[in-house]
């Protein structure tokens, strides 16, 4: 679908609260129509970045631009942005239709224009049949859809999503995150999505930026970020990792019986720690094996097989649950690793 959004730029943005540096020189570019997720733990600066873009906070230094125009000093009500928060913030005394039309009323639209545009947005999020209901008559997921429709009804230049799914249960979260992505693609609005949930970020965003202590550690397409983390923090935050002692020489490392290339950002030579995804570890039952199964965690279609190597090192392998019938606790196994580049970091950084 053709995208018609605007570019967004953070240029060396810093935000200091007394002794706390919430943002430390953030530079970030969003392409027109792109959805970028900022991912990180509480206190990493992701929400501060969103608030500064919204005009709800001011940078200590640096600049923010939208569509090439510096908006650092522009008040929030002049920035033309739509926001969806964790709390739905719907007006309980207004119907769904009137909630969605509220921003249009403030912008001087006629009643006919408001009604038509609000109805179109409710149709977009699949809630047309609920337009005369009140917030108390809707589920949490439905209320958040209304909040999304309200944010989009004003046709904002930028859509800001601040942990919009955190208050929902797991099944509804998965459904609504896919719905948000569908709607965002259909409308084409440039979107900044803030979340602490790595699965959520990887599932919906064009690019994911991982933040730590106010700094952007890495930003990349989801598959690239997951497969090629640039730092130990990114590797840990976007997935469970095995930490295995490794020796690097000539751009390769020997690991679990395999010679593997090292990923960009690895140490150039010497001893280090390899960070290996569980899905890259292969386990096969073998009475003459050198490792032993400690436990198997069933997670539906996949299972995690926890093993102990001969030297006492613990390794976790992810495999299809259908293949774990012969991997009971105490089973002797061989443990290997797929031929893929691995990140090897200094021992004191793992």
Helix/strand layout:
Elements lengths: L7 E10 L2 E11 L4 E5 L6 H9 L6 E6 L2 E2 L10 E4 L11 H11 L4 H14 L15 H14 L4 E5 L7 H18 L2 E6 L2 H7 L2 E6 L2 E6 L1 H6 L4 H6 L4 E8 L2 E4 L2 E4 L8 E7 L4 E5 L5 E9 L2 E7 L5 E7 L11 E6 L5 E3 L5
Parallel strand pairs: 3-8, 3-9, 6-7, 7-8
Antiparallel strand pairs: 1-2, 1-4, 4-5, 9-10, 11-12, 11-14, 12-13, 14-20, 15-19, 16-17, 16-19, 17-18
Quick structural overview:
The protein is of the alpha+beta class and 350 residues long. Helix content is 24%, strand content 35%.
What does this structure look like?
- The chain is α+β, with helices and mostly antiparallel strands.
- The protein folds into two domains: 8-232, Rossmann fold; 240-345, Nucleic acid-binding proteins (OB fold (Dihydrolipoamide Acetyltransferase, E2P)), CATH 2.40.50.140.
- The protein contains eight helices and 20 strands.
- The strands form four sheets. A six-stranded mixed sheet has the order 6-7-8-3-9-10, sandwiched between helices.
- Strand 4 (61-66) and strand 5 (69-70) form a beta hairpin.
- Helix 2 packs across helix 3 (111-124) and helix 2 packs parallel to helix 4.
- The protein starts with 7 loop residues before the first strand and ends in a 5-residue tail after the last strand.
- The model has no long low-confidence stretch (mean pLDDT 91).
């Amino acid at each position: 679908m053709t995208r018609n959004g605007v570019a967004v730029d953070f240029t060396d943005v810093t935000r200091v609260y007394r002794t706390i540096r919430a943002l430390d020189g953030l530079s970030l570019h969003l392409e027109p129509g792109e959805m970028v997720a900022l991912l990180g733990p509480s206190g990493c600066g992701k929400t501060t970045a969103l608030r500064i873009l919204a005009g709800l906070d001011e940078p200590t230094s640096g600049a923010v631009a939208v569509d090439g125009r510096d908006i650092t000093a522009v008040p929030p009500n002049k920035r033309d942005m739509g926001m969806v928060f964790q709390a739905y913030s719907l007006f309980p005394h207004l119907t769904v239709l009137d909630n969605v039309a509220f921003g249009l009323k403030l912008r001087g639209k006629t009643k006919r224009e408001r009604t038509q545009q609000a109805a179109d947005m409710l149709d977009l999020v699949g809630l047309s049949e609920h337009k005369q209901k009140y917030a108390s008559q809707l589920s949490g997921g439905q209320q958040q859809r209304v909040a999304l429709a309200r944010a989009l009804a004003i046709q904002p230049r930028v859509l800001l999503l601040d942990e919009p799914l955190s208050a929902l249960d797991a099944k509804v979260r998965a459904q609504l995150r896919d719905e948000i992505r569908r709607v965002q693609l259909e409308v084409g609005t440039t979107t900044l999505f803030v979340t602490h949930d790595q699965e959520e970020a990887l599932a919906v965003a064009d690019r994911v930026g991982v933040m730590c202590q106010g700094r952007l550690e890495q930003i990349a397409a989801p598959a690239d970020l997951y497969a090629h983390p640039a730092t130990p923090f990114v590797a840990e935050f976007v997935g469970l990792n095995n930490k295995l002692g490794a020796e690097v020489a000539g751009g390769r490392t020997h690991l679990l019986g395999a010679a593997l290339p090292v990923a960009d950002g690895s140490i150039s030579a010497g001893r280090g720690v390899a960070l290996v995804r569980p899905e890259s570890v292969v386990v096969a039952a073998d009475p003459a094996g050198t490792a032993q199964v400690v436990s198997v965690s069933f997670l539906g279609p996949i299972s995690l097989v926890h093993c102990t190597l001969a030297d006492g090192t613990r390794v976790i392998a992810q495999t299809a649950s259908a293949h774990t019938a012969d991997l009971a606790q105490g089973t002797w196994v061989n443990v290997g690793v797929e031929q893929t580049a691995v990140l090897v970091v200094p021992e004191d950084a793992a």
